[in-house]
Amino acid sequence: MDAVTKDRALVGAADANAAQRPSREEAMAAVRTLIAWAGDDPRREGVIDTPKRVVDAYAEWFEGYEADPAKELSRTFEDVQGYDDIVMLREIEVESHCEHHMAPFLGKAYVAYMPTNRVVGISKIARVVEIFARRLQTQETMTQQIADAITDSLRPAGVAVLIDAAHQCMTTRGVHHRHVTTITTQFTGVFKTDPTLRQRFLDFVNR
Q1: Which of 97, 130, 145, 167 is catalytic?
Q2: For residue 18, what pLDDT is reported?
Q3: Which end of the chain offers a freer environment for a tag, N or C, measured as fewer CB atoms within 10 Å?
Q4: Catalytic residue chosen out of the listed positions 26, 91, 93, 100
Q5: Is the pLDDT of residue 160 over 50?
């Protein structure tokens, strides 16, 4: 990716007004600055290799900026033998970072859609969650992005997304409430208009 885009829906799009991505060496220098700001000596033996480790970790934690959810959902299957009920994945691991403090938030995602004339490989749904999670995020935005990506690519009759996560920006700093989780939901199509179908989804979540 040549530029950090202002619109998170766009992946790898060039924008003349966007900040240019720093080099690996510049990122490592920034970590050394943070180590020194924290009060330690970046030349100390125990932390001398920390900048490299941090940059490597960030490359993994934020690899979602390099991936395209639409590409993951592009291969679909139309031979569903008349299947017209819920397709749902439960307890997809969510490992993301709060965009306000860059602190992790960890939890589970539950994603369902009602197919019309095509379905997608189930691993692709989990991959879409992973792509959006591996960006700086708010949980509310991520929930919406997952629903929108599935809607745009599969054109289903409806999508349901629920995420339940604990935010370390709340558990390890600030108010220090360790046993609080945040639940966000997004319902589209028949999941929004049909309360019975929506309740079935929630029953599957709580099963």
Answers
A1: 167
A2: 65
A3: C
A4: 100
A5: yes
- Gap between the terminal Cα atoms of the chain: 41
pTM exceeds 0.85, yes or no: yes
Q: What is the pLDDT of residue 118?
A: 87
Residues 6+ apart with CB under 8 A from 79: none
pLDDT reported for residue 170: 82
Please choose, from the candidates 113, 110, 72, 70, the residue with its C-alpha nearest in 3D space to the C-alpha of residue 93. 110
> Which ranges in the chain belong to alpha helices (H)?
24-38, 50-61, 69-72, 122-133, 139-154, 168-171, 190-193, 195-205
- 139 labelled catalytic: yes
pLDDT of amino acid 10: 43
- Catalytic residue at 101? yes
**Choice among 95, 99, 144, 168 that is catalytic:** 99
- DSSP letter at 47? T
pLDDT at 129 over 70: yes
pLDDT tens digit sequence for 39-49: 999 999 999 99
Relative to beta strand 119-120, strand 104-114 is unpaired
- Tell me, yes or no, if 176 is annotated catalytic: no
Residue 167 is a catalytic residue = yes
List the one residue out of 112, 144, 126, 120 whose CA is nearest residue 67: 126
Contact 5, 15 (CB under 8 A): yes
Catalytic residue among 98, 130, 137, 186: 98
Task: Give the chain's length.
Answer: 207
